[in-house]
Amino acid sequence: xxxxxxxxxxxxxxxxxxxxxxxxxxxxxxxxxxxxxxxxxxxxxxxxxxxxxxxxxxxxxxxxxxxxxxxxxxxxxxxxxxxxxxxxxxxxxxxxxxxxxxxxxxxxxxxxxxxxxxxxxxxxxxxxxxxxxxxxxxxxxxxxxxxxxxxxxxxxxxxxxxxxxxxxxxxxxxxxxxxxxxxxxxxxxxxxxxxxxxxxxxxxxxxxxxxxxxxxxxxxxxxxxxxxxxxxxxxxxxxxxxxxxxxxxxxxxxxxxxxxxxxxxxxxxxxxxxxxxxxxxxxxxxxxxxxxxxxxxxxxxxxxxxxxxxxxxxxxxxxxxxxxxxxxxx
Length: 330
Ligand SMILES: [Zn+2]
Hints:
By secondary structure, this protein is α/β, with parallel strands linked by helices.
């Protein structure tokens, strides 16, 4: 027997959300204003390059985002995404004759820095990263990325050709090796990679956080900076303070909804009902899963209905956010 409640399909055992895939056509289209705000990718180069101000440029291929800062004494590159790193040098040459002197890593993840070997032939290039990031990359020995040559513990300020870039390690919200916020005060420009994606819900499981307790605090951390332009490292748009507040509101809603439904759901009742349908108590994992799934299904449906018109990707990732919040609540 199969019956459907909302988007989920249940098989025999009540509450167990069996993962029957949704048809592509059942997903909400990406919101109109998000599509309209998308950075226009140059079809010839496959990337977008634009000066924000004070020499700060944003680069994107529509999925990843990085930056570079042109100074009077050379260029500072910030991240070298695997997907378009070989194009960065050419993009810089189009806007300045200044040579590339420094490369900063936001964090150790390959998708953001894994193309750095493309500028590895530049003489005396300084590759700047947190100590933990450098240690990890040295051990990993991936020939596609450069090993950092300049490291620091928590924070440092880069000064080159009259420009100032502030680097500060953040709380443990994303990668194990450490994450930087990269801030150019003169440009009111903040880059905080893998925190949020303007216009969209965060990526799976709140950007793969292993620490939802800390993740919830990063919005306040971001808003403590005086910035006008925000780069989150992913997807189609640049962000504003409003985008940060919107994602914070979504995150808080997920947490509160999951907590309420969890606290209102009696675990033993759900397990007993499931045991009856499953023919006994032997399979404890299955019974407990039914309890978790019941909460996930209910919370996901509620949250999706509230946010589907406000952020893109709600129906793609909300169930993963709910699971992350549920593990935290428990
Ligand atoms: Zn990452």
